[in-house]
Amino acid sequence: MVTQILKEEGILSLSQIRREMVDLAGGKGANLGELLSQGIRVPPGFVITSKAYSYFLEYNGLRDKIVSILKEENSSERASERIKGLILESKMPQDLENMIYTSYDELSKMAGKEVFVAVRSSATAEDIESASFAGQQDTYLNVRRSNLIEMVKAVWASLFNERAIEYRKSKGIDSAKVEMAVVVQKMVNSRSAGVMFTLNPADGDPNFIVIESSWGLGEAVVGGKVTPDEFLISKSELKIIDRRISKKNLKIIYDPESGRNKEVIIQNPESESLSITNEEALELAKLALKIEKHYGMPMDIEWAIDADLKFPENVFIVQARPETFWSSKGRNGKQEAQREVTERRVLIKGLAASPGIASGRARVLMDVKEAKEFEKGEILVTKMTDPDWVPVMKIASAIITDEGGITSHAAIVSRELGIPAIVGTKDGTRVLKTGQEITVDATRGVVYEGKIVAEEAKQEVQKGGTFSGISRDVLLSLFPVTGTKIYMNLGQPDVIEKYLDLPFDGIGLMRIEFIVSEWIKHHPLYLIKIGKPDEFVNKLAEGIAKVASAIYPRPVVVRFSDFKTNEYRGLIGGEEFEPEERNPMIGWRGVSRYVSQQYEPAFRLEVKAITKVREEMGLKNVWVMFPFVRTTWELNKAVGIMEDEGLRRTSDFKVWLMAEVPSVIVLADEFSKLVDGFSIGSNDLAQLTLGVDRDSEILGRMGYYDERDPAVLRSMKKLIRTAHKYGRTVSICGQAPSVYPEVTEFLVKEGIDSVSINPDTVIYTRRLVASIEQKLLLRGRK
Ligand code: PEP
Ligand code: MG
């Protein structure tokens, strides 16, 4: 029998909920209800209230059982395991189940078909703090009717995550008494989606709303995968002032079969027609105004149009946050900026490769030989960078290139240096002029005319990830311990100082090309020829030792050189030794050099430098890694040369190889017998698995270069499984986990041993990995 209370308050539609109903609907539910009541349309849904949760507990007699488990078990881990098990196994009372289905069926009726829903936890007032502390924010997406009840119970069970129990214990909150609500919301079946701003992002003008729109899910626009359609709408008249149709080459859609989002290439007429109607654009603008009023500040809003519903009920807001670029200037700065920028315009767009904002004078350099002209603080505009450019890049306030994708040299170096960079602009060197004042917004991939960055915003960017005034021990205690090691990528010995306070467990990739091109400057074979081989050995050893001693005893995985022939040619004396190859990217690079008669003497110098660091300087935390390995025979041969120089694998000297040519994955069992561990070079692995030049801005813009492609992910998974069979470790040092949290999640779930990421994502990744591991542990115990 349904009790009266359950009938009235067990389930509430979002439209019945208001801000003050946190105890019944939880924080999330109350907030969504409040937005709806203000006329801000969010996807329709309902809340299974805390009363319903209570009813479920009482119906199954769970309260007493929970109290006694909490008393019996000293370990929160065991308590969590047992209580979660109880909740998941208990029966959903029939009357409550009927009510949930009725509410769900109403959503389906509105849509005219069975809908997918998101099922989210919504913590009540008493528990909001522990919920956010313990990451107890379980959300299950794309849930169907058939697994709805199970997912609701899973969300309830998450109330008893181990860390939540721990946290409540420490605060004296009785876990047996806390309650939870569950929000069930229709997943938007996104026909079109995008972002909008309640000011003009090109110049900060608050009199306009700008809408960017494309087909399918909003990720295509947010992730910069397409050039979106654009609407400029005046706030005062709510009128469309300008409209631009773009060619949209792809869309992202949910694929129910695989249960994942996928990219689909689209053709004309779809690609070249407007992705929203004028009517929809104006409806969005109305919602934007309401949101700006509600929050009292300029907002950056994600929206979507639902294919299942009728206008205007199909126009939804999915996310709203304060706009930060223009708003970060403070009140005075903002006025000044607005006065200054009334006529600013977008000059060019590209791929956002290294986040940050900077203003300055552009300097267009077509050849590194012109580098002398470059002045500190200018913005470097060039075709593409290579190691010769690094000294210039170091003094630039931002970098813009015509070519290259997000794993290009320019992208990798800029991120390491913490300098904003936009790559793949196609014709930046033609459009931008030396001496021109420009602003680079490398978070969004846009270059504006004029100087529009306040000093403090610039400083913000340059601060990087360092903290001051706190001891490293205290600092580290603030970050979660993870089973998966969090390594950092670093090539430039000097910048280690800047990142010392970050919570990393070692350097998972030290690219020595930086030391060679900046410190040594000469080609190693040339130094041998002129009788100065020691110069190479000593400087290389010095650079490596600088990093290894700074972070001792944490390991530094030094990668033997991986210059390509065109890059080696740029070194002093290089031309004599380096052929001109048609495809240096798949040419004489990596191990193929070490085993060649011509380069072998230079490889021996690299080995000597490692020996010097380990033996003479006593830095036993230095390991090595072989790049661009293609075959087992060449690896055997190269290891043989290394051993011949006296460097052998031992328990404290690990030898890794980079898994970046697909042959290493295909023959993972054979390779496992030769080394201690692998590190996935996802930049090259994606390039070679998909047959996509990682520096092609054409393919990059079309979305072909994507480390998340199932073929690439499946290779990584296979490697982890095989390597583990042989007791070998697997790491990853390509850009993928620094850019895509979902890749990190995938790899952690597959059991990767470490991830090595860019300095700017160390903190974020450590937290992310901790939360994934926690979830895995708890799931595993079900
Ligand atoms: C990779 O290929 O993923 C990698 C880390 O090496 P690089 O980018 O230097 O080729
Ligand atoms: Mg590589």
TrEMBL record:
Top-level EC class as recorded in UniProt: transferase
Domain Pyruvate phosphate dikinase AMP/ATP-binding: 23-339
PEP-utilising enzyme C-terminal domain mapped to chain residues: 473-773
EC number: 2.7.9.2
Keyword flag Transmembrane helix: no
Domain PEP-utilising enzyme mobile per the UniProt entry, residue ranges: 374-445
Record carries keyword Transcription regulation: no
GO MF terms, alphabetically ordered: ATP binding; metal ion binding; pyruvate, water dikinase activity
Protein's pathway: Carbohydrate biosynthesis; gluconeogenesis
GO annotation, biological process: gluconeogenesis
SUPFAM superfamilies reported for this sequence: Glutathione synthetase ATP-binding domain-like (SSF56059), Phosphoenolpyruvate/pyruvate domain (SSF51621), Phosphohistidine domain (SSF52009)
Catalytic activity: pyruvate + ATP + H2O = phosphoenolpyruvate + AMP + phosphate + 2 H(+)
Required co-factors: Mg(2+)
InterPro entries: ATP_grasp_subdomain_1, PEP-util_enz_mobile_dom, PEP_synth, PEP_util_AS, PEP_util_C, PEP_util_CS, Phosphohistidine_dom_sf, PPDK_AMP/ATP-bd
Protein's job: Catalyzes the phosphorylation of pyruvate to phosphoenolpyruvate.
Protein family (similarity comment): Belongs to the PEP-utilizing enzyme family.
Record-given protein name: Phosphoenolpyruvate synthase
